[in-house]
Amino acid sequence: MPPRQFDGSRVRAVRRGKDLGQRQLAAEVGVSAPTVARWEGGQDFPKGEKLPSIAAALGQPLDALFPHDGPPDLQLLRCDAGLSVAQAAAIIGTSRVPVSSAESGRRRLSAAYVQPLAEAYGVTESELLSAQDCSFGHRHGASRDEQATAPRTVGEKINYLLEHGYVGQEPPSDTEIAQLVNEHAGEAAVTTDDIVALREGVATEASDVVRAGLAEALQVDAALFQDDAEVNSAARELLEAIRFLGSIHRGQILGLAARGNSGGLSAEMMANINELVGELKHKLPEVPDPGVQNGE
In angstroms, rounded to a whole number, what is the distance separating the alpha carbons of residues 107 and 110? Predict the structure, then answer.
């Protein structure tokens, strides 16, 4: 199905009203006459990138002939520009994977791809990024502050953990993170520059080995760095809870958990932790029960 609503009978009616034959429309669009016949008969649908040329051939506004619901996503922007996935990929000099992965909400576009694609699609970079948010299913109308602070990419998650996960202590440097990742991997998997590139958004790709090493280095559940662990503004509390529980499991207590209190955790804090564990068990696979007892 194309990203816009397609009604073959309506196309037929408009075509006939323009006194245009199927063969003529097919020549304008770059397909065969039998293909147009299948479209109009409801046996097939045109690819989304064909809709602009169909509308132009019939002298109709694109939105009027092929309406769509809601804000545009990446697929709609590409198709409205008349580009296939392969053509869009050629513009940024890659395979089809980055374009198709972003459109399907699996992995975000590298920062280096945003400007050339925005230009090719005839939109601003801000409009392209908003469309990308829609492709990832993020709530339309969320404030720009919410969108800016919602960690989604590997680099954004690193930055979020460095900012919020080290209350009362110095977070590891990029060099230290790289060293910890390499120690966990047992090989030279990343360099300091690689970590910097991820955090600055210059790079968005990271191997499974690096992702596992980052989870170990930053003391979080490895699931957080998986592609399907998209973290929006509504899940920030869950992200902090993952790190908190992971730290407890390793015998480490964050500053927010009464750091330095030799008497142990308070009864109130214990109740909060037990409640948190119960809430998270159905959201994350194999979340360990910290088993913390006051005074242990």
Answer: 9
The CA distances from residue 247 to 17, 42, 151, 270, in Å, are 70, 58, 20, 15
The model's pLDDT over 131-182, given as tens digits with 9 standing for 90+, comes to 998 988 754 444 444 444 456 778 888 887 887 666 556 889 999 999 999 9
CA atoms within 13 A on the CB side of 108: 29
Rounded-to-integer distance, Cα 204 and Cα 215, Å: 16
DSSP letters along the chain, please? Answer: --SS---HHHHHHHHHHTT--HHHHHHHHTS-HHHHHHHHHTS----GGGHHHHHHHTT--HHHHS---SS--HHHHHHHTT--HHHHHHHTTS-SHHHHHHHTTSSPPPHHHHHHHHHHHTS-HHHHHHHHHHHTTPPTT--HHHHHH---SHHHHHHHHHHHS-TTSPPPPHHHHHHHHHHHHTS----HHHHHHHHTTS-----HHHHHHHHHHTTS-GGGGSTT----GGGHHHHHHHHHHHHHHTT---GGGTTT-TT---HHHHHHHHHHHHHHTTTSTTPPP----TT-
Residue 204 contacts residue 153 (beta carbons within 8 Å): yes
Burial state string for 227-249 with b = 16 or more CB within 10 A and e = fewer than 16? eebbbbbebbeebbbbbbbbbbb
Average pLDDT across each block of 10 residues of the chain; the chain has 296 residues. List them in order. Answer: 89 95 95 96 94 96 92 95 95 92 87 95 95 76 45 79 70 93 94 90 86 88 64 46 48 39 45 53 44 43
- What is the distance between the alpha carbons of residues 247 and 269, in angstroms, rounded to a whole number? 15
- Whether the pTM exceeds 0.70: the reply is no
Cα separation, 273 vs 225, in Å, equals 23
